Amino acid sequence: MTDRSGAGKVVTGSPTRRSVAGHVSVVILGVLLAAVLGVGAVVLAWPIPEGLKSVIAPTPAAATSESGRGSSATPSALSAQALHLPVGRPIIIGVFGDSMGDGLWAGLYRQLRDGRAYEVVRFSRAATGLARYDYVDVQAETASQLARRKIDIAVVMVGANDEQAILDSGQAYAFASPSWRIIYERRIDALVGLLRQQGAVVYWVGLPKMRKPGYDQKAQWLNAIYDAHARALGISFTPTLPVTVDERGDYSDHLSDGGARPRLMRARDGIHMTMPGYLRIAAPVCSAIRAEVARAWAAQRRSMGTNDPVG
User: Fold this and answer.
1) Is residue 175 part of a domain?
2) Which CATH number characterizes residue 242's domain?
């Protein structure tokens, strides 16, 4: 299946319980829903294959194997991020993740389409995540995407599908168990390492406030992991929680955007955003990117001994 990016470009983008056809129909339904909403709106907790249900248990020693795939990005192996400005072309911003990433791409595309300074490309894919590489190996897919397209800035928003068991080497580990966390954190580090190996500056974006308290508690637990790893890896973490709560810090479908009345910001599922909501969570990411680009231009002008614009 392929996902369409903006400006007519094409970039890429479950396991079975009873039949592959059953899951295909679910995905098709989700895609049709996404078409109605204008962005991806699929959050699925794929079932554990029948042969693995009996082995859900935390066993940290086994989990550290991660199918022999170690982290390619450790805090000691990464230097501080620095944007290298391209010559003769726009700055390419690749947006990675799940259906929330789809929506974030839409928000960034609209906010950064002024002039010809930026090109925002969607690499996200609905109904994916870092927990179920047996369905879509995000690491492998990202490597394939990067082999076909150079990017300067990577924006990652993922996790809406990850509040479930994680599979590794034929074993399933319960969500939030010690083994689950070991594997999940390795996958974060490896994904960031892959993006940075290409020279991309990485922005990791947190999950928003969720309507259901139990789901929200898990989402904020994941956010704490993302924040901690971003700090350790020297990348930017942009939380969305501050812009997805009301003045009391609570979930609300309607939030003020400075207008006469609050606007509908959340989809009916209490997870995804409406288009105004995606514009809202994209705004701080957009500001951070513009600031990063401004710093890079200033540094380049200083190195050239001129105050004239470069480009």
Assistant:
1) yes
2) 3.40.50.1110
